[in-house]
Amino acid sequence: MRKLINKAKKPLKNVLKPLAPVIVVGITVAMMIVLLVLAMDWGYLAPAVGVPFAESTIQPIRVLFLSGFLVGVLFGSLALLYRRYREALADRWDGYSTWLKSMIAGVASSLLTAVGLGVAVALDWIPISLVFFGVLVTWPIVVGMILLGYRRGPRSTSAGTSIRTAYVLTRGLEPRTLSAIVGLLVAIATGLIVSGIANWWVGGVSLWIPVVLAGVTWAAITLVAYNRYDAALVERTELTIERLQPSSSRAVTELTVANTAGRTVDLSSALIRDTDLDLYRPEFAMTLKPGQQGTFEITGDFSLEPNDDSTELPLGYDLKLGADTPAIFTTDGAVHYLQWTENTAQVIGRDSADHLVTDDRGTTRDASSRTGRTPPAAGEGVPQD
């Protein structure tokens, strides 16, 4: 018998050892909740729970302890899983697009807000309408903050300039999402103002009136904002890829672009998107005057080949999952679709005739000029929607 017990100890110990911190967290959280309830004299809020198929009742203080224990075990388990798979989770998170990260964070924050306010409703501290209000406010604020936070200018001289840079880039990259956020915030403010005026003027109105008015406002403002963002986006084809030179010492490629426009192009804090719609921020701070060239580095993950992948949507629409040529988004609200010379197109075996530059005689232009400028390092890629 003793041999059997000793033989079972090791596997049992292997199971209980990782669970011990979780159990400790659960007990700690349960005791803190019980002590808080007793100190604040909130014991009357905890119900007694009857045990199914048994003629017994769990006392309120035990209900509190068990509830706190389960909450502690839940969060302790999540912390344990995160600690064990932290690197894998970090790699997966880094592979998500900025848009998807903002959506996940927005939904998670809204759920946490709903749970927190739901507890307040259960304690009769707030009306249930504030739960819906909290969720509606949390989602656009969190999503907007993440979208702007990832695109702030790294070399901006002030916080205001950095936020403005992020806003302009987000307006060009995510016009639909940004317009929906603006519309929702304006709609919430409109509903609150209407409710406040109605309560002050006539002593209140039915809830559906400010709700319907807010819904109409959201649709109208979203449409107006999107049209303004779309009209403000300037599409240009004045940057040409003049040279592609793989590095002999590192796994990067030097990409040289020339400004063929009659205006100066400021690439400071600009973002470049490849043909797989992955977004990069090369660490360059250059301003290209007319005819001037600039060189920066791209990694092997940067896609240059044309990508015509798409997915079908309802009503016969298609959602493009790729692009024909890389594009640079500058902080003045312009998107520069990079053009190709015959020489650079041959380097990657590009067979598309789109975005191929020609000279005054209508023939494709060849260029292989170099610059003496040290190319800035390539930025990290972040997939975009």
Automatic annotation (TrEMBL):
Organism (species): Natranaeroarchaeum aerophilus
Composition bias type Basic and acidic residues, residue spans: 351-368
Transmembrane segments: 20-40, 60-82, 103-123, 129-150, 178-201, 207-226
Superkingdom, taxonomy of origin: Archaea
Official protein name in the record: Uncharacterized protein
Region (Disordered): 351-385
Entry keyword Cell membrane: no
Keywords for this protein: Membrane, Transmembrane, Transmembrane helix
